[in-house]
Amino acid sequence: MNRKQKYGQIRKEAIACFWALVAVIVFWTIAGIGVSRLNITIFHTPLWAITGCIGTWIFSVALVIWLVKHVFQDFSLEDEGESLRMEGADEQ
Amino acid sequence: MNSNFLALLPVFLFMVTMLAVSVILRKSNSRKESQGFVKEYFIGSRSLGGFVLAMTTVATYSSVSSFVGGPGQAWSIGFGWIYMSVVQVTALFLVLGVLGKKMAIVGRKIDAVTVIDIIRHRYQSDAIAMISAVIIVLFFSATMVAQFVGGAKLFEAVTGYSYLTGLCVFGLVVVLYTTVGGFRGVAVTDTICSIVMLAGMFLLLAGVLKQGGGYENIMNHIAANKPEMLEPFSGGNMPLTLYISQWMLVGIFTIGLPQSVVRNLSYKDTKSLHRAIIIGTIVVGAMNIGMNFIGVLSQGILPEGLDAYGNSVDNIIPLAIARSLPPLLAGITIIGPIAASISTISSLLLSATSSIIKDVYLYEKEKRGAALPESRAKSFSQLCNLILGLAIFAISINPPSVIWKINMFAFGGLESAFVWIFLLGLFWKKANKTGAIWSMVCGTLVYCLTMLVGFKIAGIHQILIGVTVALIAMVAGSHFGKKTDDEILDIYF
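^ Those are the sequences you sent over. The predicted structure of the assembly is below.
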């Protein structure tokens, strides 16, 4: 991957993080304030508190795992010229 | 052995361990130091792995208020406070996921050691580097004083020893181990701090549940006596505007905090970054939910009104610790909040030192063609760290009221100053020197002024005004200012 391609990928990842943020905000709102309207209590705890707090946490963790596996890519952080030289050295 | 001493002992041993870890790390990395002291001392030679990167970012971000003030509020507000605090799960994937890779690539290319190195290079301006350094040193110093005071007060409340004893036990040691260990020491001790914070949290949770007669008993007490604590808006105590404010202040705009952003210059490779995003999101969620949940459950052991507890929510967690755990366990538990305090102090202290030494002193010397030899840079860096740390320590003994004002402005002030500088600097070609200076100056000043006079728009925290003004100033300034040179832009785009 050359530097321009890396920067294209970085842009894609940054945009994906923005949409992940939007998804967390939407989930948080529905799972918390939205669910609180149902007035359900489980194990002496209001359901909205479980879905809004622990739910949002689990949702966020699942989301970042998905991002890392499906959107984020591994590449060298060194300068392209340098990495090319290193690849050449490896081949030798 | 008296009980007070038993409460003191764990913190004392913990601090000795932190110091020992820093000394050992310093010795074992002396070879890397010989390859470039400044890079090793301020960013650990770009070698952090995923776990340490995650833990140091979380520990820097979790301050003493995450363990004392916040859970105290949860005791008063209820589950709404936990619901609000969980927005912090976005912090890691924003600061590492959005800025992480580009900062790392550019940092390697221009050999940047501090965030100001990047800002100076991107905007080709010594003026903005100098303004950044002033803002960082001022706000970081006030935040450090607040952390010292919070930790020492907690120490006093739980152990019965004086405020000054507490300050000496952990304050002097944190200054010392930061000076000795540099960034690598800070990162590893931060990691230990994070683990200790989690352990202390579980210990306190068990103690509070046991002392309160079990979960069911505590929840029945809350439902019968304070049912509003079970609602998201807490009977009007937790309005929607507060949620929106917190989303911005401790969620979205934490992407602009320089003490977190600098960690993007320190990690080894993209695998480490990816791992850190996942681990960090898990840990930051667990800590925020866990500690604030303990705050809510403390109602079971502290059921009276706030006036019965000294009229301050800051007293709730110290009282909960003291009432629910025997002295030795209480002593072990307060290591958690003390760890939160020292891990924030160590990172801020080192960042502030790097601003003074690397961004101002060494840069000016180099510019005048009188670059310091490595050995002088080494002794200056350590000396500056020690003097600044001791000065902050001395101020914390009896802080003047102006420090509290600056501290109140620090978090949002740093966000207003830096958020667009980083974000648009790395992702918007047209961002230039004029826009950056306008953004930083206008954003910070307007934020501080509106905080000072208490002016808000639609009841939302002044961070809204700060970042909006900073954005408008960046766009307007970039429109009127001179375009950045293509050869510079080529490094960033």
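Residues 3-400 of chain B form a domain with the Sodium/glucose cotransporter fold (CATH 1.20.1730.10). The first helix of chain B runs from residue 3 to 28.

Shout if you want it in another format.
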